Amino acid sequence: MDDKIVEEIKNFVENECKKTTSHYGYEPFVFHFIPMVNYAQQLAIKFNADMEIILISAWLHDIGSIVNGREDHHINGAKIAEEKLKELSYPLDKIELVKKCILNHRGSTNFKRESIEEQIIAEADILSNFENISGIFKAAFVYENLNQKEASKAVFEKLTRKFNQLQFEESKKLVQEKYKAVEILFKE
Q1: Pick from 2-16, 108-122, 151-165: least confident
Q2: Burial degree of 37 (CB within 10 A; 0-12, 13-18, 19+)
Q3: Crossing angle for the helix pair 169-186 and 148-165, nearest 10 degrees?
Q4: What range defines the domain where residue 128 resides?
Q5: Is the pLDDT of residue 51 over 70?
Q6: Are 172 and 163 in contact (CB under 8 A)?
């Protein structure tokens, strides 16, 4: 594994989050990217996936949101990833694998995932939601302008939808207790 390129990509994402032009500021780096990468590593070990592809894809999976906003962030992110990785002379065949992981990570798109790495990135992205419930509430209040009742309902529905999107039993086990807590706290 090329630890140097993984570190360069991590630093690139962190620096993009720190910029005043970042759509969501620095918080996503701490509260979304880091937990997501941790879950991706755990799943990569469990399923013997290509750790380098996993780590690079995990760091870059939401770069499109940071740079250009949420809409089509998977498409924009794949383009940004390709440009950055080419700049770093990363092998073209590996760039294509990273792009597929980024393009297919969104649960709302229902793209067919063809590799274990693509599925791991999608799963880790879902799992990270259970580490950042306050961030989901922030989005409901700040970006969606919901009141408390609407936000509670929206957060519960989102986390239920996310939990049900998990394909790996191993993933469900990782957040099962947290999901049970969500049910207790927010189910009407």
Answers
A1: 108-122
A2: buried
A3: 160
A4: 3-186
A5: yes
A6: yes
